[in-house]
Design goal:
Elements (H helix, E strand, L loop, with lengths): L2 H15 L5 E4 L18 E4 L6 E5 L4 E4 L5 H9 L3 E3 L10 H6 L7 H4 L6 E7 L5 E5 L5 H6 L9 E11 L3 E9 L2 H14 L4 E8 L2 E10 L14 H7 L2 E5 H5 L18 H11 L2 H10 L11 E8 L3 H11 L5 E7 L9 H4 L6 E10 L7 H12 L2 E2 L9 H7 L2 H11 L8 H5 L4
Parallel strand pairs: 1-2
Antiparallel strand pairs: 3-4, 4-8, 5-8, 6-7, 6-8, 9-11, 9-12, 10-11, 10-14, 13-15, 13-16, 14-15
Helix pairs in contact: 11-13
This protein binds flavin-adenine dinucleotide (FAD).
């Protein structure tokens, strides 16, 4: 089926769904919205977009790729590496899709220079609820819409095609692990490294309140040895004790995939014997997420594990880490420097303040189990309001509606919605992303 025929089919589904309440999209790969005990997020009516998963054009000379939104990063990286290229932002889990990365704000270890995946996109084709096909680009046609489909979790329009930049790559990555014994030393090193702009990859791990490791990576043509993190070795454990490492470029991009960062350890998967015996069956973020959806009774409804990213201005990072050490004291904590080149219009300008800050740190919590009756998601939300930080909406959200719309930009969201979905087929952003505990 051609891309145009797929769009025609989906437009037909959209028109049949009109007037029946909010709908949600069904892709072929599992969602990386955190699985919940109840509710799938989004409406009851399903729009099948599972065949939108192909590369449409790989322009090696021009270093761009045009593809459908359900394409996974693993499939994309394999195709581009064959030409010595990679996308300018590769989220760390294999089956995150390029459409989901835009709608749900993906960032990774190249984000200190290049921002998130959306920041490296050049054009989107989107389908409105009425089946109208629109082309959007940052500076050109439908510029506001281009930016509003980012971070709004599919509530504005269905992205049906993306054109994005590629970068030259080499077959291997050399990593140097810089160990720091204090928050101050780690934050100073991040600022210095990001300021120098001479590292291709930068991310970090908080291992305890006085133990941080900065992971600095470069593409290289040759490697004296190669490590794999798909089975017996867990990447975060190696990073904690090694001073350097080599891996293939594909292995590097998905180094956190087998353990789903370190969520696997909550289910015994860090035990070497368990890994040896059943690791090949259970390791891998795709399997873990699919299993969690098939066995929802494994998820505690009253005290769900905290899996969430928060974006904090670097000037407030020290304050955040003090709070985090005191209230959560849960490690590792993933730390990703994230350059926001221009304020995103889906965030309220009043909330961020005039101009905002360019460098944020993404602190990602993976699998914290609440140790008492407090609502730890809410604790994070309250702290973020104080620090003018943003929480991704991928898991449990407890903002009050009015509070939420003081942080997210109601005016810009309403304006985009009037243009693409006045009857609310794609749902309301607050209703889609929030749940009561
Ligand atoms: C355990 C875990 C680990 C994670 N680790 C990382 C990480 O290492 N790096 C990182 O960057 N991110 C990470 N994430 C976050 C992830 O990038 C986001 O959740 C992202 O949105 C997932 O994309 P997906 O392809 O799975 O899309 P989905 O989860 O299926 O969709 C995400 C949202 O986008 C909407 N959407 C999907 N496709 C489209 C489309 N074509 N048009 C419009 N809207 C659409 C959906 O309706 C939904 O609201 C992680 C998430 C989890 C749960």
């Amino acid at each position: 089926m051609t891309h145009e025929q797929k769009i025609e089919r989906i437009a037909g589904e959209l028109s049949r769904a009109a007037g029946q309440g909010a709908a949600r999209f069904r892709k072929s790969s599992p969602s990386h919205q955190v699985p919940k005990r109840r509710g799938k997020g989004g409406g009851a009516r399903v729009i099948d977009v599972s065949d939108l998963d192909e590369i449409l054009e790989l322009d090696v000379e021009g270093r761009t790729c045009t593809a459908e939104p359900g394409l996974t990063f693993d499939a994309l990286v394999q195709a581009t590496l064959a030409h010595g290229l990679v996308p300018a932002c590769v989220p760390e889990l294999k089956t995150i899709t390029i459409g989901g990365a835009v709608a749900g704000c993906s960032v990774e270890s190249m984000s200190h220079r290049l921002g998130g995946f959306h920041d490296n996109c050049l054009e989107y084709e989107v389908l409105t609820a009425k089946g109208e096909v629109l082309c959007c680009s940052r500076e050109g046609e439908n510029g506001q819409l281009f930016d509003m489909v980012h971070g709004t979790f599919g509530t504005i329009a269905l992205i049906t095609r993306l054109k994005f930049s590629l970068l030259p790559a080499k077959p291997y990555v050399h990593l140097v692990f810089e160990h720091h014994d204090s928050v101050e030393s780690c934050l100073a090193a991040i600022e210095e490294r990001v300021g120098r702009a001479d590292s291709t990859f930068i991310d970090g791990l908080g291992l305890s309140p006085g133990n941080f490791v900065l992971c600095l990576g470069e593409f290289v043509d040759e490697a004296p040895y190669l490590h794999s993190y798909q089975w017996m070795r867990a990447y975060h454990r190696s990073a904690a004790r090694m001073s350097e490492d080599y891996m293939t470029a594909r292995e590097y991009f998905f180094r956190y995939d087998a353990d789903c960062h370190w969520i696997g350890r909550n289910y015994g998967l860090e035990n070497p014997l368990v890994r040896l015996l059943v690791g090949k069956i259970f390791l891998g973020s795709t399997r873990m997420l699919s299993l969690a959806r098939k066995l929802p009774f494994m998820i505690r409804a009253d005290k769900p594990e905290v899996v969430v990213d928060v974006f904090v201005p670097i000037s407030k990072a020290r304050d955040f880490l003090d709070f985090y050490g005191r209230e959560f004291n849960y490690w590792p904590l993933w730390i990703v420097p994230y350059r926001i080149a221009r304020p995103y219009p889906w965030i309220s300008p009043e909330f961020l303040g005039m101009g905002g800050e360019e460098l944020y740190l993404d602190f990602a919590v993976y699998g914290f189990r609440p140790r008492d009756g407090r609502n730890y998601f809410r604790l994070l939300e309250e702290k973020l309001v104080e620090l003018k930080g943003i929480k991704t909406l991928i898991s449990h959200n407890f903002y009050e509606r009015q509070e939420f719309w003081r942080i997210w930009n109601r005016g810009a969201w309403d304006a985009a919605k009037r243009r693409t979905d006045p009857e609310g087929l794609f749902g309301d952003l607050y209703d889609k992303t929030h749940r009561r505990g």
